[in-house]
């Protein structure tokens, strides 16, 4: 592979003028069996490059324990792209945003309550260095300078939107170079004065991110970099969804028009996203502008290639723009994956959460309720339990700084829910003999962008009745990363109320494997596993109505579904259908 160079306002690859025509495809949001399909469709559309982030939290789930297998096999993804004739841009910044949990930072960083993120903080930088010591040896052999497909790497991601510590940016750049990253290094930021001042380095290529008004945005960039190539490193051609909000979409002709204008200006462009994929498991992020807003499981992004990898109208219009500008475009449109309606799957076994707490979790005892991170937990749920004396009548129960959504029970009976985005006290009565108070808190995704990035989960301040804080707590971490210990029983299982959290299990026999979608009509809120793989979250409040189930997660013969339902279902039946529902 040839090396990418900058000569004034032009890129050169192997000594010849070159324009980057790139699309973002995140390996960690796609099952590995479909990586080739998505990359082939990217190339068929006319793109010559694929761009991907690298999420630190996926690759170092526990401090000092690194993972580069399966969906985390970044080496295989990059190698495959090169074999298909694509160049690769890698963005291995410690922070990636990406609507990904904690912006890609690992939750275990927050064990250090005094840590300062994304700056010259010694504790933070030691963790970054250890991560890069493990990651960079995987990437360096794949650099174009070593004959591989990687032509450029990012130093930090939209740093000007967060801070202005130039020493920190220089530290990261030096660290990449010292570990062998000798390809083109760049920064990417929004095209505003403060962002370009805070997020760039004088000796690194600067790029900008935006979704419209290219003439205006590139003009602002030119005020700072009059002679560098024009690069839109993130062309936001779609957008992501939050729970409780409408589904986002953007007209294909508008996307094509803005793209055409960027190419007419001579710019290089990276589509964010070309194919979004899925926030499997607990890896969705969240935003915090005026209030906390968690991101849904689907990362369809209204991109040219849909969540399940199908060609859209946007794909067709973008392809025609690329053809107009001389890109190598496939003569035929790629085929969609095969979908199948498998029908209803009835849950045949169940186990209520309160009946299996001790089997699932080893409790910790503290005077005050602690956040997840202090107990070594990253994701999932945590249950707080204490004994309250009585009698108490009409007192207000306050959960100070609950993150993110708490269900409250007195002696096993549900009394209400407290949500971070709309906090309010619950009025409670405690009988004369006292009562057990249980609080089940769901981590709905750490903030991935902005000043609220340091986002501990669980109960982060305290619990009080009126003005009296409650002390002496048992805490049950529930990461739900292994469900073998759940003591399922066949129906009729122990009778549960409509608001009791319950695990359900059901089976489906499959002889013909295809993509499908899990429809949860009549269910309320929870998470779904298929054959031990965590598909993600569902919530009746939408906008997402189905969960994408890629065919490779099924197997011929018996398949096992497990559902953790928080509030109850009208009937314990799911449906596997052949089309998604968003909106």
How would you describe this protein?
The chain has 583 residues and is of the alpha+beta class. The protein has 3 domains: 19-324, Glycosidases (TIM Barrel), CATH 3.20.20.80; 343-352 and 486-577, Sandwich (Jelly Rolls), CATH 2.60.120.260; 357-478, Jelly Rolls (Sandwich), CATH 2.60.120. 18% of the residues lie in helices and 32% in strands. The chain has 10 helices and 32 strands. Strands 14, 25, 26, 27, 28, 29, 30, 31 and 32 form a 9-stranded antiparallel sheet that branches. An 8-stranded parallel β-barrel has the order 4-5-6-7-8-9-10-11, surrounded by 6 helices. Strands 15-24-16-21-18-19 form a 6-stranded antiparallel sheet. Helix 8 runs parallel beside helix 9. The longest helix has 18 residues, at 122-139. It is globular. The mean pLDDT is 96. InterPro entries: B-gal_1-like (IPR026283), BetaGal1-like_ABD1 (IPR048912), BetaGal_gal-bd (IPR048913), Galactose-bd-like_sf (IPR008979), GH (IPR017853), Gly_Hdrlase_35_cat (IPR031330), Glyco_hydro_35_CS (IPR019801), Glycoside_Hdrlase_35 (IPR001944).
Write the layout of secondary structure elements.
Blueprint: E1 4-7, E2 10-13, E3 16-18, E4 21-25, H1 35-45, E5 49-53, H2 56-59, H3 74-83, E6 87-91, H4 122-139, E7 150-157, H5 166-178, E8 184-189, H6 193-199, E9 205-210, H7 214-224, E10 231-236, H8 252-264, E11 268-275, E12 286-288, E13 292-294, H9 313-324, E14 343-352, H10 357-360, E15 364-366, E16 381-388, E17 392-403, E18 405-410, E19 413-419, E20 426-430, E21 435-442, E22 458-465, E23 468-469, E24 473-478, E25 489-490, E26 502-510, E27 516-519, E28 525-530, E29 533-539, E30 546-549, E31 557-565, E32 573-577
Parallel strand pairs: 4-5, 4-11, 5-6, 6-7, 7-8, 8-9, 9-10, 10-11
Antiparallel strand pairs: 1-2, 2-3, 12-13, 14-25, 14-26, 14-32, 15-24, 16-21, 16-24, 17-20, 17-22, 18-19, 18-21, 22-23, 26-31, 27-30, 27-32, 28-29, 28-31
């Amino acid at each position: 592979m040839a090396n990418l160079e900058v000569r004034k306002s032009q890129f050169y690859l192997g000594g010849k003028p070159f324009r980057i025509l790139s699309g973002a495809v995140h390996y960690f949001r796609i099952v590995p069996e479909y990586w080739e399909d998505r990359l082939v469709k990217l190339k068929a559309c006319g793109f010559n490059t694929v761009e991907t982030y690298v999420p630190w939290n996926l690759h170092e789930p526990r401090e000092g324990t690194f993972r580069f297998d399966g969906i985390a096999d970044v080496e295989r993804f990059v190698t495959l792209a090169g074999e298909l004739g694509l160049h690769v841009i890698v963005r291995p910044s410690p922070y990636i945003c990406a609507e990904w949990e904690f912006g890609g930072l690992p939750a275990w960083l927050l064990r250090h309550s005094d840590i300062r993120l994304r700056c010259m903080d010694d504790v933070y930088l030691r963790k970054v260095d250890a991560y890069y010591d493990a990651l960079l040896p995987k990437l360096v052999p794949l650099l174009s300078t070593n004959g591989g497909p990687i032509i450029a790497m990012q130093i930090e991601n939209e740093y000007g939107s967060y801070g202005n510590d130039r020493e920190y940016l220089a530290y990261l750049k030096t660290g990449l170079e010292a570990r062998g990253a000798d390809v083109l290094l760049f920064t990417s930021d929004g095209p505003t004065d403060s962002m370009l001042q805070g997020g760039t380095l004088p000796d690194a290529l600067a790029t900008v991110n935006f979704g419209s008004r290219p003439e205006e945005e590139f003009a602002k960039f030119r005020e700072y970099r009059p002679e560098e190539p024009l690069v839109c490193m993130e062309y936001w051609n779609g957008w992501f969804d939050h729970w409780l909000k409408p589904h986002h979409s953007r007209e294909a002709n508008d996307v094509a028009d803005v793209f055409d204008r960027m190419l007419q200006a001579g710019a290089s462009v990276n589509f964010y996203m070309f194919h979004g994929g899925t926030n499997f498991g607990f890896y969705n992020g969240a935003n915090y502008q005026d209030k906390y807003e968690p991101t849904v499981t689907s990362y369809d992004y209204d991109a040219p290639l849909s969540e399940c990898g199908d060609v859209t109208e946007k794909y067709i219009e973008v392809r025609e723009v690329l053809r107009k500008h001389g890109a190598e475009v496939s003569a035929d449109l790629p085929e969609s994956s095969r979908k199948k309606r498998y029908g209803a799957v009835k849950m045949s076994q169940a186990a209520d959460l309160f009946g299996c707490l001790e089997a699932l979790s080893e409790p910790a005892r503290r005077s005050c309720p602690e956040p997840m991170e202090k107990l070594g937990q990253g994701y999932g749920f945590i249950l707080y339990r204490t004994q309250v004396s009585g009698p108490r009548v009409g007192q207000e129960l306050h959960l100070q700084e609950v993150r993110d959504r708490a269900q409250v029970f007195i002696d096993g009976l549900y009394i209400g829910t407290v949500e971070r985005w709309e906090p309010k006290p619950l009025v409670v009565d405690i009988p004369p003999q006292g009562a057990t108070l249980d609080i089940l808190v769901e981590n709905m995704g750490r903030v991935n962008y902005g000043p609220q990035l340091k986002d501990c989960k669980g109960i982060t301040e305290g619990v009080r009745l009126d003005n009296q804080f409650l002390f002496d707590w048992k805490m049950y971490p529930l990461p739900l990363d292994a469900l073998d210990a759940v003591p399922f029983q066949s129906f009729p299982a122990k009778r549960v109320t409509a608001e009791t959290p319950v695990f359900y299990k059901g089976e489906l026999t499959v002889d013909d494997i295809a993509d499908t979608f899990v429809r949860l009509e009549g269910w309320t809120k929870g998470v779904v596993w298929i054959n031990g793989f965590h598909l993600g979250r569902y919530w009746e409040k939408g906008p997402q109505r189905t969960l994408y189930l890629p065919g490779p997660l099924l197997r011929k013969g018996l398949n096992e579904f497990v559902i953790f339902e928080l509030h109850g279902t009208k009937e314990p039946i799911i449906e596997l259908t052949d089309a998604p529902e968003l909106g």
